[in-house]
Specification:
Blueprint (H helix, E strand, L loop, with lengths): L2 E5 L2 E3 L5 E8 L7 E7 L6 E6 L6 E3 L7 E6 L4 E6 L8 E8 L18 E2 L3 E5 L2
Parallel strand pairs: 2-11
Antiparallel strand pairs: 1-3, 3-8, 4-5, 4-9, 5-6, 7-8, 9-10, 9-11
Length: about 130
């Protein structure tokens, strides 16, 4: 019933752009914090960008700051990750996630995985020349 489905991944050359989409079903996205995470083989999943319910707090990992933008379209129950100036180091499986939110003491805590109970299946992003 509760489902998140990512799309928009693919192969792109360095310097290119992609927009990832995450469509929610079974729940109303505007009542949840949303996060984008990524994972490469042999490494722990890391938070890329997370935004809270009221869109008053937005976190970006230092590695993507200035290049990626998270947004949501509540009317379409969809969250997006616009990725510009892509680098080979951005290659990973990207996951969207949703959680009920809660108090944080640091902005980085927005992307603590324990805050997110619902996860998509992931979409592959490959940046290569």
């Amino acid at each position: 019933q509760v489902q998140l489905v990512e799309s928009g991944g693919g192969l792109v050359q360095p310097g290119g752009s992609l927009r990832l989409s995450c469509a929610a079903s079974g729940f109303t996205l505007n009542y949840y914090d949303i996060g984008w995470f990524r994972q490469v083989p042999g490494k722990e999943r890391e938070g890329v960008s997370c935004i809270n319910i009221r869109d008053s707090y937005t976190y970006y990992a230092d590695s993507v700051k200035g290049r990626f933008t998270i947004s949501r379209d509540n009317a379409r129950n969809t969250v997006y990750l616009q990725m510009n100036s892509l680098k080979p180091e951005d290659t990973a499986v990207y996951y969207c996630a949703a959680g009920p939110g809660g108090a944080i003491t640091t902005l980085q805590a927005m992307c603590a995985m324990k805050r997110y109970g619902y996860w998509g299946q992931g979409t592959q992003v490959t940046v290569s020349s």
